């Protein structure tokens, strides 16, 4: 049926055929290979037409401009703290999630999740705090150090980054300036490092884990409104779930080795 409709059979190796393909390609608004070939076959039958159309369309600047694939981002080298072998939670990143509502009798209050993540193993430790005061954060930090061992370096966003973020997170900038907090960090021998200003991707190793935590938390909680102690318990269970995520692809064969996951322990 298609052969009866074709009124001309040009050779695929002549200049006329090339100009014909270009004309039809431009007439239909620089569409793709299939659209151009369909338009051509209304009046012409070109041997190995799809291959020829594909070759010619590749030279069309307009088609290349609007159908080009984005360039791959060249990633820089990871900092030394991320790749140096060390016990879990020796190099730590700290971040706060947004407010989560909890109930207290007939009232609701805001609470916040303090995220501690190991820069080397990517394991997480979650602490629920009742407010963004210096006292509550120091208590959360003390609980973290008591369970995971003293850390050497802690990374966090700088003060300007927090001020530009949500209102609740802006309070964390004031905590970092508090003399009580600075004395505590100095007594523990912790080196606190701030990421470069206007370079939030420097803190990507802890910001990325916020989504990893929120996914199971959202599915577990749904629209439920829990008490502070209940939410703290749920966070402990979510912490275990996240820390047992697989570190590599899970193969289908029975001969595969046991899948490794995070099981961080406190350092001495």
From TrEMBL:
Pfam families: Integrase_H2C2 (PF17921), rve (PF00665). It comes from Trichonephila clavata. Signal peptide: none annotated. Gene3D superfamilies: 1.10.340.70, Ribonuclease H-like superfamily/Ribonuclease H. GO terms for biological process: DNA integration. GO terms for molecular function: nucleic acid binding. PANTHER family: GAG-LIKE PROTEIN (PTHR47331:SF1), PHD-TYPE DOMAIN-CONTAINING PROTEIN (PTHR47331). InterPro entries: Integrase_cat-core, Integrase_H2C2, RNaseH-like_sf, RNaseH_sf. Transmembrane segments: none annotated. This is Integrase catalytic domain-containing protein. Residues 84-268 form the Integrase catalytic domain. PROSITE patterns: INTEGRASE. The lineage of its organism: Eukaryota, Metazoa, Ecdysozoa, Arthropoda, Chelicerata.
